[in-house]
Amino acid sequence: MSRIGKKPVSVPDGVAVTFEGDVVKVKGPKGELTFNRPAGITVDYDKDSKEVRVNRPNDARQSRALHGMTRAMINNMVNGVQKPFEKKLEIQGVGYNAALAGTNLKLQVGFANTIFLPIPKTVTCTVTDPTHITISGADRHAVGQFAADIRRVRPPEPYKGKGIRYEGEVVRRKAGKAAAK
Questions:
Q1: Burial of 150 (0-12, 13-18, 19+ CB in 10 A)
Q2: Which of the residues 9, 85, 97, 147 has an alpha carbon 20 to 30 A from that of 108?
Q3: 137 burial level (CB within 10 Å; 0-12, 13-18, 19+)
Q4: How do beta strands 23-28 and 31-36 pair?
Q5: How far apart are CA 164 and CA 167, in angstroms?
Q6: 3-state SS, one letter per residue, for the chain
């Protein structure tokens, strides 16, 4: 039995949950999100207790997996429209920096050319200083995916630690050839 799927999702004041066929819509002060629920999974909203409950038709492996995933997606949507999700990245390396260029993020991270990444419409990207990037938005998946796309441009390397990393991420360092002798 899915433990996550059984828990009801409490809906706070200021957040509206509506259903249109297979589409679950959550609207709040920070935005509006939609989710297509999987076939066979039912979603019920109790207006009196302000709770969303997710149910599954049987105990098949696929139904169990979709049960917990659907509940987690709805919970993330309810939380995201209240308080946006946030990821922070830091850039380490001499001459490595980031800047905003219109609707693109401009990265100079040791390549011969400058990398331009288009910022998705569902997220906001701020560059507090040339070595720190903050990504925020109501959609948890979009925020995490854009942060991963930025990090993928130049992941931190293990010898000098240069590259783009999540704030607070610890990169395990290796000893070079000179230290091995």
A1: buried
A2: 85
A3: buried
A4: antiparallel
A5: 9
A6: CCHHHHCCEECCCCCEEEEECCEEEEEECCEEEEEECCCCCEEEEECCCCEEEEECCCCCHHHHHHHHHHHHHHHHHHHHHHCCEEEEEEEECCCCEEEEECCEEEEECCCCCCEEEECCCCCEEEEEECCEEEEEECCHHHHHHHHHHHHHHCCCCCCCCCEEEECCCCCCCCCCHHHHC
Q: From its phi and psi, is residue 93 left (phi > 0), alpha (psi between -120 and 50) or beta?
A: left
pLDDT tens digits for range 134-155: 999 999 999 999 999 999 999 9
Tokens of 114: 């400058």
Contact (Cβ atoms closer than 8 angstroms) between residue 93 and residue 110: yes
pTM: 0.89
Domain residue spans in the chain? 3-82, 85-166
Indicate if 85-166 has the same CATH topology as 3-82.
yes
Reported as a single tens digit per residue, the pLDDT across 89-118 is 999 999 999 999 999 999 999 999 999 999
Q: Which CATH class is domain 3-82?
A: alpha beta
The yes or no reply on domain 85-166 and CATH 3.90.930.12 is yes
- Cα angle 23, 50, 79 (rounded to 5 degrees) comes to 65
